Amino acid sequence: MRVFIAGLGTETNMFVPFPTGRRGYEEFGVFRGDATRHPPRSFSGPLHVWRRRAEERGHQVIEGLLTFAAPSGTTVRSVYEGYRDEILAGVRAALPLDMVLLNMHGAMVAEGYDDCEGDLLARVRAIVGPKTVIGGELDLHCHISQQIIESADVLVTYKEYPHTDPMERAEEVFTLCADAAEGKVKPVMARYDCRMIGHYRPPVEPIKSFVDRIRALEGKDGILSVSFGHGFSFADVEDVGTRMLVVADGDKAKAAALAEKLGRELFAMRDIAVSKFLTPAEALDRVASHNKGPVIIADRADNAGSGAPGDSTFVLRALLDRGVGPALFGIVWDPLCFQIAEEAGVGATLDLRIGGKCGKTSGDPVDLRVTVKNIVRGAHQTYGPVKSPLGDMVWLSAGDVDVVVNTLRTQLFHPDAFEALGIDPTSYRIVVVKSAQHFYNGFAPIAAEVLYVATPGAANPDYVNLPYTKRKTPFWPKVADPFA
Ligand SMILES: [Zn+2]
């Protein structure tokens, strides 16, 4: 058998003021057929799994382009078309093919393309014809469009958030596609629009049990795979929102019925299923109820992992105004600030303008008199099984509030990002983390409590007021009963 593997992905926040160009992808790396000759990283991991599994079965693997850009604004048209066409040229050159396996994010938008994955999969289908099995892996923060369903045979999303399971899901994609290529199963897919937009947390109830139930349905009664697509909310596309996706063996009606049943189940528990967000003031009020820290406050709306800049100051302003400390705030993406602090040197005290540089969603810059406590270059933090780069970092102290600034736009995953600077996060009363949920596995064990706040940042979970213009069906919480 001949198996083609490739990957193209990003998560597009259409509400941030900057585009994603070639540099965004080059920062991760553009691998032209050799991603699996490098150590596995977040987005390249599934290709390693697919190559290994295919070679174990004696199949021939043809590897195409793989690249990924950190979540950010809409991808420049020529950049998307260039990478897409490289993948398509690879598919064409590799014909005949029994399987095409693509790692995608599922929420990639480019100028002129609201559904990049649908576009890519449809073009792959047009090249390979109806008999080749096409499989894809998606982040659960994806737009499950009709086009991706119609163009692929098997699509599987992650189940966990923090995303700890891309490798497991890659195993499933391979098994299902290989079984289909060998004629053992006939995968058919159906999706269901839950008519909800929300933020869900699988480590806690009721989502934890819901995901466990989904998992238990797989592999029996003709159900091959079940995906709960949380959706990615910061995109004005028709398919924005939460959807169920079921892959059944030959029975499309069965897939559709289960997708609807699960989608209705989720909808029925909507009030307790979605994360609740506090204002910064409410979160700081709540801190007073703890006599032992740290209370972890997630600055959800400025999560670089949702495409936000990572330099918003709304929560910092609230901390300074309230005067509750000691507090640690980070990580702020502000290369200019880092450069000035580095010039001043460790031990120096100076006036610095911090954050607020990327537009309205970043808030106003904050002017502080700070002492440079420490600097590290080329730092890393733990992200699941890998070390994720942080760029250069500086620890700034402004009395009762410490701020960590870095040069590489990324969300905060783990306390070891702070520890790299010699900071002990457990010594603070409050730790503000710029992350929506990926911080959770690292920080929850040291937290007195974990709180989530919303601000007017670029990933503000104010779903009622986000400027959606393309979604055609109503959704909760914008309307009380979207099925009426
Ligand atoms: Zn995600």
Note down, in words, how this protein is organized.
By secondary structure, this protein is an alpha/beta fold. The chain has two domains: 2-273, Response regulator (Rossmann fold, 3-Layer(aba) Sandwich); 280-453, no CATH class. 29% of the residues lie in helices and 25% in strands. It contains 14 helices and 17 strands. The strands form three sheets. Strands 12-13-14-15-11-16-10-17 form an eight-stranded mixed sheet. Strands 2-3-1-4-5-6 form a six-stranded mixed sheet, with helices on both faces. A three-stranded antiparallel sheet has the order 7-9-8, with helices on both faces. Zinc ion is lined by residues 139-141, 163. Zinc ion binds at residues 139-141, 163.
